[in-house]
Design goal:
Blueprint lengths: L49 E4 H18 L2 H6 L4 H15 L15 E4 L3 H13 L4 H5 L1 E4 L2 E4 L12 H13 L8 E5 L5 H7 L5 E6 L2 H13 L6 E5 L13 E6 L14 H4 L4 H4 L7 H13 E10 L3 H13 L5 E8 L5 E8 L1
Parallel strand pairs: 5-6, 5-8, 6-7, 8-9
Antiparallel strand pairs: 1-2, 3-4, 9-11, 10-11
Helix pairs in contact: 1-3, 1-4
This protein binds S-adenosylmethionine.
The site of S-adenosylmethionine (SAM) has 22 residues, from helix 7, strand 6 and helix 10.
InterPro entries: DNA_methylase_N6_adenine_CS (IPR002052), HemK-like (IPR004556), RF_glutamine_MTase_cyano (IPR052663), SAM-dependent_MTases_sf (IPR029063)
Keywords: Methyltransferase, S-adenosyl-L-methionine, Transferase
GO molecular function, one term: nucleic acid binding
Length: 358
């Protein structure tokens, strides 16, 4: 899972940023008897159970390189999509994940020498065709994304976590360092958890418990799988339901609350890069007419869900949404929150709104 100068963890930055009935309260969903979609095992974790010859693998590799080259600047000119150079890097990563000994691809072996693969050759032909012809995101092809120091499982139906969202973990960490009361534990929530990346990220810096919620059953299944992979079942419970509905048992008691909700204005979605608008779930993207529907709902809910002194961090589309949110808190919800601040992401975009419940 290594990469060259362009790190795999930064791959998702080529995707346009996402400005762009409680089933079993209090318990991790995978401990319940609810039937959930079974998450897909990421390619790099599958056993190398498929045998091919060296010449068959070479033939596939040459075909895949030619397909990547044929794209040229077409996708980047069209919608800021990947160019050939990036697709060639992705192909290297696909080889690293799919071939038991990826160095063999550059070796000089006998044509009939056996190579062991984590997917059969037919699947490798098909997924690379999908990557190029259907613009299926690379992360869905390999079934994972590198995010902070995690490798989270992702698949269709779940948003691929973006690099800018990594900052929320640092914001939580900073809040804990500055505020002794917050360090005393308590329950936190990650609302709209998707793959569970953010819940896992904050659980590892917190002393307390995290409840991660999502309306999407696929997201709940994938987040539960990732929580299990990082052995955090004791710290993170994943619950299915809309925003605060699955959190009635902790109303007014949350020590902290984070969320990266859908915030893209509905009319902008079709103009996004094909990898995003054709393949990522609309439920994860669409924030209504001006993109603010869910942010405002979360803001209203935070006032009743957080305990006094409780911390919140919300991700937004950028400057305008952040400002609308802070103005809303200061004017319409006067007295509910204090120390509201707008914080920037790595690119200097005013992406996050943080503050405390009074
Ligand atoms: C922008 S994605 C963020 C996913 C994840 N937190 C991340 O940063 O990668 C928004 C998430 O909110 C979820 N969502 C949308 N509407 C919801 C609702 N009414 N209640 C709970 N979750 C919802 C979506 O399924 C999606 O997983």
């Amino acid at each position: 899972m290594k990469s060259s100068c362009f790190t795999r963890a930064s791959l998702s930055s080529i995707l346009q940023p996402v400005f762009p009935p409680r089933s079993n309260p209090g318990r991790p969903v995978f401990c319940s008897t609810a039937v959930r979609p079974k998450p897909r095992t990421p390619l790099y974790l599958r056993p190398p159970a498929f045998r091919a010859t060296f010449s068959e693998l070479q033939k596939w590799h040459i075909w895949a390189k030619n397909k990547a080259t044929s794209v040229g600047p077409t996708f980047s000119d069209l919608d800021n999509g990947p160019d050939s150079a990036l697709l060639h890097r992705e192909l290297n990563w696909l080889v690293e994940d799919a071939v038991e000994n990826p160095n063999l691809i550059r070796a000089c072996l006998d044509d009939t020498a056996p190579v062991w693969l984590r997917a059969c050759l037919e699947e490798l032909y098909e997924v690379w065709r999908q990557r190029i012809e259907e613009r299926r995101p690379f992360q869905y092809v390999v079934g994972c994304e590198h995010w902070r120091d995690l490798i989270v499982s992702v698949e269709e139906g779940v948003l691929i976590p973006r690099p800018e969202t990594e900052v929320i973990v640092d914001l939580v960490d900073d809040a804990l360092k500055r505020n002794e009361e917050l360090r005393n534990g308590g329950v936190w929530a990650d609302l709209g958890t998707g793959s569970g990346a953010l819940a896992i990220g904050i659980a590892r810096v917190l002393g307390g418990r995290v409840i991660a919620t999502d309306l999407s059953p696929v997201a709940v299944a994938v987040a539960s799988y990732n929580v299990q992979r990082y052995d955090l079942q004791d710290k993170i419970a994943v619950r299915e339901g809309s925003w605060f509905d699955p959190l009635k048992d902790v109303e007014g008691e949350l020590s902290g609350l984070v969320s990266n909700p859908p915030y893209i204005p509905s009319k902008d979605i079709d103009g996004l890069q094909a990898e995003v608008c054709k393949h990522e779930p609309r439920l994860a993207l669409d924030g209504g007419a001006n993109g603010m529907n869910d942010l405002l709902r979360l803001c209203n809910g935070a006032a009743s869900m957080l305990r006094p002194g409780g911390f919140f961090a919300f991700e937004t589309n950028g400057e305008t949404q952040s400002k609308i949110l802070v103005d809303y808190m200061d004017a319409k919800m006067k007295g509910s929150f204090c120390n509201t601040m707008i914080m920037s992401d790595f690119a200097g975009i005013q992406r996050f709104v943080t503050g405390y419940r009074t």
